[in-house]
Design brief:
The chain has no helices and 14 strands. It is an all-beta fold. The protein is globular, with a radius of gyration of 15 Å.
């Protein structure tokens, strides 16, 4: 069992979580309203987390195959930059993926480079979640065309055994 803490101030960011063997399959949006918002079901169940070996979030780089439609992040849509070039994530690997509600004290960290999606955060901008101390620690995805999950940045958090 693990509790995640902010690397900067040491504050606990989550309660006790159980490591899953892998990131569960990501859901596709089914059109159902959840609490008045359109979003896919959560990727990770409450109380669990997984380590995602794939890159997540920015920076984005041109995809090697411009004829295909590779995902910008696992389970997500392909993305194109302003010139119409298909890009893929070259962001950090080994992010900790958890249910967004398992880190209830995180605050929204808005940046001018991270426009919101139509129904939530698309996860293709800079990290958008901060500790109470103000340090950015991760990124939530909650838009209608993305998985519903929180990615904690491995350099911004510390995983500690639960007491």
């Amino acid at each position: 069992m693990t509790i995640f803490h902010c690397s900067a101030c040491g504050a606990a960011l989550t309660g006790t979580l159980q490591l899953l063997p892998a990131v569960p399959p990501r859901h596709v949006f089914d059109g159902v309203l959840v609490d008045g918002r359109r979003q896919a079901p959560p990727t990770v169940p409450r109380g669990g987390y997984a380590v995602d070996p794939e890159p997540h979030g920015p920076p984005f780089v041109p995809a090697p195959d411009q004829d295909g439609f590779p995902p910008a992040y696992p389970g997500g849509p392909c993305t194109s930059d302003v010139d119409g070039v298909i890009v893929i994530s070259a962001g950090p690997r080994n992010t900790f993926v958890l249910h967004p509600e398992d880190a209830p004290d995180l605050t929204w960290h808005a940046t001018p480079d991270g426009p919101p999606g139509c129904c939530g955060a698309p996860g293709d901008g800079p990290p958008n979640q901060a500790c109470r101390c103000g340090v950015v620690v991760g990124s939530v995805m909650s838009d209608c065309f993305t998985p519903y999950e929180l990615h904690l940045l491995p350099d911004a958090v510390r995983a500690a055994p639960a007491p």
